Amino acid sequence: MGCWLVVAGFSIYKRYLAKDAPLFQGSYERVSDGGDGEVTDDDHGYLQRSSSVSESSGPAAKAMLPDADERRLLAGGRLFLLALPACCDITGTTLMNVGLLFVAASIYQMTRGALVLFVGLFSVIFLRRKLYIYHWSALVIVVLGVAIVGLAGAIGSRPSAPPQHNSLIHAGLHAIRAVGSEANVMAHRPESLQTVLGVLMIAAAQIFTATQFVLEEWILENYALDPIKVVGWEGIFGFIVTVIGMIILNWTVGRTPTGRHGYFDVQGGWNEIVEHKDIAITSVLIMISIGGFNFFGLSVTRSVSATARSTIDTSRTLFIWMISLGLGWETFKWLQILGFALLVYGTFLFNDIVQPPLRACLPPRRHETLLPEEPIEHL
Length: 379
Known about the structure:
Mean pLDDT: 76
Strand content: under 5%
Strand order of the largest sheet: 1-2
Low-confidence stretches: 22-35, 45-68, 158-162
Structural class: mainly alpha
Number of helices: 14
Number of strands: 2
Largest sheet: 2 strands, parallel
């Protein structure tokens, strides 16, 4: 539903609000090579092709048409290829939300940081991408930054501070003993099994999300279709799969005595949306946010790569933290500054915004022969 709302809003904007904006229309007029200003038949054909490309282009990206490149048009039965990333998106989102019920937010954040590694690995294996040493180093730095942010949240949530020690050795020994005793106690608790289950579900969700990113990059690389249309078709397939799943789970679980007023009770969920306006408004805003997130993510995937999209996606944690601080939902911790600094640096490093500190990490340059191999004959 959110994808459809974004498509509808984009269509309204393009039809009524962007008429007088050449920047968004992609208008272009070719300058004639002749001095008389006449337009030849070749110019007519070129302008017709460029106008057809500009009519379907959007604010965030140019159109992807068979006339613009060698890619085939994604139409007919090939549109069902978009059902694959849609199913991966639904599966990954469901696993992450269910896993969040069993673990703390800090553990969820740390586990979710593994997404960039899975995307990079799948890009190398399935898309035959070439990642250099500094690319892998940037991905590791991003994961480390996310882990530090989650660790800061876990440390800050403890009710009491650890006792002070006179030396670093005593402090280290005390920390080792505390971790060992805590691990021994948690191993005999039933909550520990739920935590392990939650971590495994969140980790599996990152595999599905990475598969979604890589599939979308492969589709956009081999077939011609505007990202906004990809969002719309993925929304249609995702809506169909979701409705079918809701019907099956409602009849098998939601209508049973133990399943009433639970997660799969469709009637109970609808009643809560109707009775509480906050839930209805939040649901609509979430749908719009997800639709816009998919559109801009697909634009980045098509323009750059799926791995670059995953690094930028991970960096949104910084903006969530800043907004949470402004709203008073979170307290300031200096350790999070270190984590976010590593997160931003790793993202910039991977996307070639900053250069790696060591020249050995740079890819080898291709030396082109400036002079012909044969000797030059002077007349």
